[in-house]
Amino acid sequence: MSQQTLSDDELFGEAASEMRADVEESLAAARAELPTADAVWNVESENTLGVLNSLRSALDAGEAEEHLRNAKKWYTMGERADAFEDAEDLREAIEQLDDLIAEIDDAHGQVGELASTIPQLRGALQEAEADGGTDDAGEAEAEDDESEEDEE
User: What pLDDT digit, counting tens, does each position of 3-48 carry?
Assistant: First the structure.
């Protein structure tokens, strides 16, 4: 083996180690951007809309998607170059993180839709209460009608 080949092999091994480290660093950075379980679970507000807005804010994945994209990019390069001896753990970590970010994004969208629906629903309920009274008033009228029938 020539000196040049030995140097190329050493450089390739070094590059492969750096690529793996880049993937692992990007995955760690993506995980760090994810919301904490407590931030999603423990939200406080005085009303429903405030809770939904707090939850929507808590469900922000930040730059996790960008970090995951970098991890995928370096992983793909390393795989195509056959630079990793064993990359199954990296592939699994990328897939799990990708699924989790998609789930967070989905929940964020659902909460956003609900947050935009609740004020409309509240307005419609307020309008219905003003037009015809509340359900409690309707129940009281029905009870009065029953009492009158019993008296006859």
Answer: 555 688 888 888 889 999 999 999 999 999 999 999 999 988 999 9
- Note down the domain range covering 145: 3-151
pLDDT, tens only, 101-141: 999 999 999 999 999 999 999 999 999 999 986 555 445 45
Tokens (6 digits) for 78: 């390393």
At position 51, the amino acid (one-letter code) is: V
Q: How many domains does the chain have?
A: 1
DSSP string for the chain: --HHHHHHHHHHHHHHHHHHHHHHHHHHHHHHHSPPHHHHH----SSHHHHHHHHHHHT--TTHHHHHHHHHHHHHHHHHTT--S--HHHHHHHHHHHHHHHHHHHHHHHHHHHHHHHHHHHHHHHHHHHHH--HHHHHHHHHHHHHHHHH-
Residue with tokens 């480290």: 21
**Residue for token pair 């019993």:** 150
